[in-house]
Amino acid sequence: MRIHFIAIGGAIMHNMAIVLKRQGHQVTGSDDKIADPAKTNLDKEGLLPESIGFYAERITSDIDAIILGMHAHEDNEELKRAQELGVKIYSFPHFIYEIAKNKKRVVIAGSHGKTSITSMVMHALKANGLQFDYLVDRKSVV
């Protein structure tokens, strides 16, 4: 699958791009600002955009999916081009839903202790020899 991230430099976005690349997908991305650790991580994986910014010409009809980061605004030229071409566009939460909709999911939410509880659940799953995917984020995704 060919996937392009608009606003790839976010904490969760760049990690998702890396995971998808490692799974064998062809991944590209763009952003108007990429700071470390995202910059270093993307560079190590060969995913750091050649130039900073959003450019409509990066979006072609052979892209299977666009994943939008939090600061991809309606007037983003890459987003507009994807809409013109009819490329499938996902918000990050919608993409996560699509790839996980046929899996059992555990969601841990609340004001305090989410990371601790998540690590305990992951430890229990691993200790019992269960394979699992995980997504841990410091921000709410609704």
List its traits.
2 domains, alpha/beta, globular, 142 residues, 5 helices
Structural description of this entry:
This protein has 142 residues and is of the alpha/beta class. It has two domains: 2-100, 3-Layer(aba) Sandwich (Rossmann fold); 103-136, no CATH class. The chain contains five helices and four strands, in the order E-H-E-H-E-H-E-H-H. The protein has a four-stranded parallel sheet with strand order 2-1-3-4, with helices on both faces. The chain is globular. The protein starts with a strand and ends in a 15-residue tail after the last helix.
CATH architecture of the largest domain: 3-Layer(aba) Sandwich
What strand order characterises the main sheet?
Answer: 2-1-3-4
Shape: globular
The proportion of residues forming helix, as a percent range, comes to 25-40%
Q: For the CA atoms, what is the radius of gyration?
A: 16 Å
Q: State the CATH superfamily name of the largest domain.
A: NAD(P)-binding Rossmann-like Domain
Domains (count): 2
Top-tier CATH class of the largest domain: Alpha Beta
Beta-strand fraction estimate: 5-15%
- In total, how many beta strands? 4
CATH topology of the largest domain: Rossmann fold
Instruction: Specify the biggest β-sheet.
Output: 4 strands, parallel
Secondary structural class: alpha/beta
Residue stretches low in confidence (pLDDT < 50, at least 5 long) are none
Helical segment count: 5
Distance between the termini: 25 Å
Mean pLDDT: 91
- Strand-and-helix sequence, N→C? EHEHEHEHH
